[in-house]
Amino acid sequence: VQLVESGGGSVQAGGSLRLSCAASGFIFSSYGMSWFRQAPGNECELVSTTSSDGTTDYADSVKGRFTVSQDNARKAVYLQMNSLKSEDTALYYCANVGLGYWGQGTQVTVS
């Protein structure tokens, strides 16, 4: 199993970023995926999830600003982040919680 995130970077407050997570090594369409983030000194926070039935969920802190999508044909999950705030600064990970696999993370910095 491999999960590889990309798309992080530095952006000004109010800006947007789109994170991608490319998956391999498992039957992608059978699983939901999750995005977590961790800022220095903070606990890891669940940001958003998808389910195999297509439902999505979000942390209250990102509702209305972030949109998660899962593309089973491309074996990828995306996190569109709009109206970014400084408190969104963190290392963002995608994960298959069911199988217990995490990516290496991609840094998002909002100034």
Question: Topology of this protein?
Answer:
Blueprint: E1 2-6, E2 9-11, E3 17-24, E4 34-38, E5 45-50, E6 56-58, E7 66-71, E8 76-81, E9 90-96, E10 101-102, E11 106-110
Parallel strand pairs: 2-11
Antiparallel strand pairs: 1-3, 3-8, 4-5, 4-9, 5-6, 7-8, 9-10, 9-11
Number of strands: 11
Strand content: over 45%
Distance between the termini: 34 Å
Shape descriptor? globular
Order of helices and strands: EEEEEEEEEEE
Largest sheet: 7 strands, mixed
Rg, nearest Å: 13 Å
What is the helical fraction, as a range of percent? Answer: under 10%
Number of helical segments with 4 or more residues: 0
User: Which regions have little confidence, pLDDT < 50, spanning 5+ residues?
Assistant: none
Report on the structure:
- The structure is a single chain.
- By secondary structure, this protein is mostly beta strands.
- The chain contains no helices and eleven strands.
- It has strands spanning 2-6, 9-11, 17-24, 34-38, 45-50, 56-58, 66-71, 76-81, 90-96, 101-102, 106-110.
- Strands 2, 4, 5, 6, 9, 10 and 11 form a seven-stranded mixed beta sheet that branches. It has a four-stranded antiparallel beta sheet with strand order 1-3-8-7, with no helix packed on it.
- β4 (34-38) and β5 form a beta hairpin.
